[in-house]
Design brief:
Layout (H helix, E strand, L loop, with lengths): L5 E9 L4 E10 L4 E6 L5 H8 L7 E6 L2 E2 L2 H4 L2 H10 E4 L12 H11 L4 H14 L15 H13 L5 E5 L7 H17 L7 E5 L6 H4 L2 E6 L2 E6 L1 H5 L2 H6 L4 E4 L5 E4 L8
Parallel strand pairs: 3-8, 3-9, 6-7, 7-8
Antiparallel strand pairs: 1-2, 1-4, 4-5, 9-10, 11-12
Bound molecules: adenosine-5'-triphosphate and magnesium ion.
C-alpha cells in the first residue's frame, strides 16, 4: 500500500482553553483535492497549521510521506528546507502573510530563502507575475493593495516556489466573483503547468459552496475539532441537514413564516 501524503493519527491540540483538534485522525493522498468545511471555530485553520507544521500537536502523530512532523525534526535545517520547498500555505488573512515593500520583493522572498541565485530569483519572479497577470502590481506596496489583489499576491508568493502541496485557508472569502474566477484561474494555471498534474495536492478550508466542485474531489466536514462527515462535493451539497449543522447554509424565516434552508442566494421571484 502506498504511504499517504499526510497521515494524522489521534491528534489533539489546544491553544489555551478548549480543544481545537480532538482525537483527529485522517489521511490525505498525493494528488487529492480536499475541502475542509465547518462552522467558524470548528478547527479548519488549526488543522491546516498542523499540516504545515506551524503548530505541533500535544498528542498524536502527524506524518508527511511517512515522516513524523515534530519540533525536533524541524530543528534540522535540511528537513525543514525540504518540507517548506514542497508544502506552501496561503493564510486566511493576507495581511499576516505580506510584509515586503513591493510586490516584486514579496514574491522574491520565498525563492531567496530557498537559496536560489539572484538572477534566477529575478527571472522566476518576473515569470510568475506575468503568468498570473499581476505584473502591473510589481512595484506597488502590498499593504496598499485591495483585498483581492493582496490575495493574488499572497498566492503568487507561494506558487512561485511550485510546491507539490498547497494549503489554502479560505482563498475566495471576501472576493468579488471576478476575483474569485481569477484566483481559480491561477490555481488551474499552476496545476496544468505541472509535468505531472496528479502530483499536485490542494487542501482548502472554505465556506464557499459555489466553488466547492471546482476546488475539491473530497470534502471533510469538521465540528469541534473532529471530522463528522466526509464525501464528494455532490454528496455533501445534497445533505441539507449536514450543511445546516456545519453552518454552511442557514435556515431563515420568510415573511410567509416558512423556514427555508438553502445553499445559495435567494433570487427574487419575478
Ligand atoms: N491563536 C489562537 N489562540 C487561542 N485560541 C484559538 C486561536 N486560534 C483559534 N483558536 C480557537 O481554536 C478553535 C478552532 O479555531 P480555528 O481557527 O481552527 O477554526 P476555523 O474552523 O478555522 O474557524 P473560521 O471558519 O472562523 O476560520 C476555536 O475555538 C478558536 O477560538
Ligand atoms: Mg479559519
Amino acid at each position: 500500500m502506498q504511504t499517504p501524503l499526510f497521515a494524522i493519527d489521534n491528534v489533539n491540540f489546544r491553544y489555551t482553553d478548549g480543544k481545537a483538534l480532538d482525537a483527529l485522525s485522517l489521511t490525505i493522498e498525493a494528488g487529492e483535492r480536499v475541502a475542509l468545511l465547518g462552522a467558524n471555530g470548528s478547527g479548519k485553520s488549526t488543522l491546516l497549521r498542523v499540516l504545515d507544521a506551524l503548530l505541533f500537536p500535544e498528542s498524536g502523530d502527524v506524518r508527511f510521506c511517512g515522516e513524523l512532523l515534530t519540533e525536533d525534526a524541524f530543528s534540522e535545517d535540511e528537513f525543514a528546507y525540504a518540507f517548506r520547498k514542497r508544502v506552501g500555505f496561503v493564510f486566511q488573512n493576507s495581511d499576516a502573510q505580506l510584509f515586503s515593500t513591493t510586490v516584486f520583493d514579496e514574491v522574491a522572498f520565498g525563492p531567496l530563502q530557498l537559496r536560489l541565485g539572484a538572477g534566477e530569483v529575478r527571472r522566476r519572479v518576473a515569470q510568475t507575475l506575468e503568468r498570473f497577470n499581476i505584473s502591473p502590481l510589481s512595484d506597488r506596496a502590498p499593504h496598499q493593495l485591495s483585498g483581492g489583489e493582496k490575495r493574488k499576491v499572497a498566492l503568487a508568493s507561494v506558487l512561485v516556489l511550485d510546491p507539490d502541496v498547497l494549503l489554502l485557508d479560505e482563498p475566495t472569502a471576501g472576493l468579488d466573483p471576478r476575483s474569485q474566477t481569477q484566483l481559480m484561474d491561477m490555481l488551474d494555471e499552476w496545476q496544468h503547468s505541472s509535468a505531472d498534474r496528479c502530483a499536485k495536492t490542494i487542501v482548502t478550508a472554505t465556506h464557499d459552496l459555489h466553488t466547492l466542485e471546482d476546488m475539491a474531489g473530497r470534502c471533510l466536514v469538521m465540528e469541534r475539532g473532529r471530522v463528522i462527515a466526509s464525501g464528494s462535493p455532490g454528496e455533501i451539497l445534497s445533505d441539507r441537514d449536514l450543511l445546516e449543522r456545519g453552518n454552511l447554509v442557514h435556515a431563515h424565516r420568510h415573511r410567509s413564516r416558512h423556514t427555508h434552508p438553502h445553499p445559495g442566494l435567494h433570487r427574487p421571484q419575478v
